[in-house]
Design a protein that fits this description.
By secondary structure, this protein is α/β, with parallel strands linked by helices. It has two domains: about 1-80 and about 170-253, Rossmann fold (3-Layer(aba) Sandwich), CATH 3.40.50; about 90-170, no CATH class. About 40% of the residues lie in helices and about 25% in strands. The chain is built from ten helices and ten strands. The strands form two sheets. Strands 6-7-8-3-9-10 form a six-stranded mixed sheet, with helices on both faces. It starts with a strand and ends with a helix. Bound molecules: adenosine-5'-triphosphate. Adenosine-5'-triphosphate binds near residues 18, 39, 40 and 43. Adenosine-5'-triphosphate (ATP) binds next to β2 and α1.
Length: about 250
């Protein structure tokens, strides 16, 4: 049973259809990739799911909740978090501070508690720290924890960005081009992390990615977008032998 369902979503900017009647079903516990040529609408789709854009028409549901008009922080509270294509990190802060800050956006104690730092505030703070430490450990960021994010290699920054999304304890993680700009070794590491996010942390993964080799290797199901429309859906073999998909990619060259 799918638990994230995009139904007939259209998104327009003026006369431009970024998405046209897109239907998508994300199965829990799997890795679903969304691929397509430049400008196909992949990031727009993630933006609609995560609440950064609201569809012009159509609906998005997660479990029994309607996401269609929710703001990003509400979507995140329901268990869907997002790692961004263009890093949303604070370059002047350390890895640890970036991750703690991501948790603090969701503060559930009031200022008075915080000032005196007892009771609920202290408990929440300890939980935050424990969560962040487990994410640092999982994403193998220990050597970088005190380093300023802006000084790290691009590949490590991308890992911190995924870690930032993981600190929100998602059930579903949306990864927008997690391998962009990485060398081969960094990509292999990221593939390993993505597999572990699925297997060890049992998080449903949705990826937008341009590296077709990686997509074919890691995806349980693949959606192909072209000019805002879904033109293919299936596993790697089905996608590779789909004439519309092949044509869309050849047309791009
Ligand atoms: N905020 C916006 N305002 C106007 N047009 C937009 C906006 N966001 C996206 N678009 C347009 O919608 C279309 C789809 O863009 P989108 O970024 O979703 O594609 P994409 O498949 O993610 O592309 P890429 O692979 O190059 O990142 C493009 O024509 C883009 O110019």
């Amino acid at each position: 049973m799918p638990n994230l369902i995009v139904s007939d979503v259209t998104l327009t900017f003026g006369g431009l259809h970024a998405l046209s009647s897109v239907n998508l079903e994300i199965q829990p516990g799997l890795i679903t990739s969304v691929i397509g040529p430049n400008g196909a609408g992949k990031t727009s789709l993630l933006n609609c799911i995560s609440g950064f854009y609201h569809p012009t028409s159509g609906e998005i549901h997660y479990k029994d909740r309607r996401l269609t008009k929710l703001a990003p922080h509400h979507v995140s509270k329901l268990g869907i978090s997002r790692a961004f294509q263009n890093l949303e990190l604070f370059g002047g802060l350390s890895v640890l501070d970036n991750l703690m800050l991501a948790r603090h956006k969701d503060l559930s104690y009031n200022l008075l508690h915080a000032v005196f730092f007892f009771g609920k505030a202290a408990r929440v703070e300890a939980e935050n720290r424990e969560n962040v430490e487990s994410v640092i450990d999982f994403m193998e960021l220990e050597p970088y924890r005190k380093q300023t994010v802006g000084n790290l290699s691009y590949g490590v920054q991308k890992r911190v960005e995924v870690a930032r999304a993981l600190t929100l304890e998602p059930e579903v993680i949306l990864l927008d081009e997690p391998m962009a700009g990485m060398n081969v070794e960094e990509k292999e590491d990221m593939v390993r992390f993505i597999f572990d996010i699925k297997k060890e942390w049992e998080i449903t993964v949705v990826i937008v990615e341009h590296d077709l080799g990686v997509v074919m290797d890691i995806s349980d199901q693949i959606y192909v977008l072209d000019f805002g429309e879904v033109i293919g859906l299936g596993n790697a073999d089905q996608i590779a032998s789909n004439p519309r998909v092949v044509e869309a990619y050849i047309g791009e060259e």
